[in-house]
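Example 9 (inverse folding). The structure is encoded as follows.
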């Protein structure tokens, strides 16, 4: 089983930001990346739809491709469906992602933190529980970013710029001064793909938090505990999609070649 692939999936291209971190952390592992582009974006879909798609993709990666572990590289799918995937595949290591509120608290000096995420993620019971558990440690400005993941998916640079500016502006004053938002949580795996735009808008004194590297480290920890780490490499990558495979291949060639955080 250690030579079997790790299945990684997202509604589209956003999970490539997590896959990039996984491949850096686990260069000997084989990965299968599934982009459900034909049904994206998940952030504006119902919980029932997301759960059904997530279970079907998990089944496909496990049954048809022999995945030894699954990484749900989508905040919305994690919030809506990871508990169902874990129930269905109790024998399988399953790792999800969630907005990095805890590392944001550790990084923030002003304890005012902006959270940029899809409306579906922010409305989920899983996120609400996380937020409530930390509400006494910092002030969180929650900003739904309607349309942004879809604009990134389509490569609409002008719309990405417009929406990014609108949503950062909606957080109020950002900076390092008292009462200012000094930390931004990128709570959708699409958003790190345009991290440089957020960095320009927020300025050099504002810390950006994304979860690719912590998820990759946790995946290593889980695989080690289960005795499933690959014994030799280098690893291979297969790409699957319900959308345009050529577009996914081009996006992977672009984003996976970039250093993490760039």
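The amino acid assigned to each position is listed next.
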């Amino acid at each position: 089983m250690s030579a079997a692939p790790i299945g990684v999936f997202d509604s589209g291209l956003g999970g490539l930001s997590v896959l990039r971190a996984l491949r850096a952390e686990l260069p000997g592992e084989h990965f299968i990346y599934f982009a459900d582009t034909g049904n994206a974006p998940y952030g504006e879909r119902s919980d029932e739809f997301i759960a059904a798609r997530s279970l079907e993709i998990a089944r496909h990666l496990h049954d048809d491709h022999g995945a030894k572990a699954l990484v749900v590289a989508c905040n919305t799918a994690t919030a809506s469906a990871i508990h169902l995937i874990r129930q269905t595949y109790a024998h399988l290591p399953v790792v999800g992602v969630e907005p990095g509120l805890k590392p944001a608290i550790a990084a923030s000096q002003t304890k005012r933190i902006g959270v940029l995420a899809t409306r579906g993620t922010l409305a989920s019971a899983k996120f609400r529980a996380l937020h409530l558990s930390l509400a006494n440690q910092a002030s969180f400005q929650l900003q739904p970013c309607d349309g942004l993941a879809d604009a990134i998916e389509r490569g609409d640079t002008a719309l990405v710029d417009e929406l990014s500016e609108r949503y950062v502006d909606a957080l109020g004053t950002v900076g390092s001064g008292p009462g200012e938002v000094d930390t931004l949580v990128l709570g959708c795996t699409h958003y790190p793909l345009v991290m440089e735009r957020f960095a320009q808008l927020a300025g050099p004194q504002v810390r950006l938090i994304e979860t690719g590297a912590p998820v990759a480290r946790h995946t290593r920890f889980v695989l080690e505990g289960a005795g499933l780490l690959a014994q030799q490499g280098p690893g291979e990558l297969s790409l699957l999609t319900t959308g345009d495979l050529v577009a996914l291949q081009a996006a992977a060639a672009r984003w996976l070649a970039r250093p993490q955080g760039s």
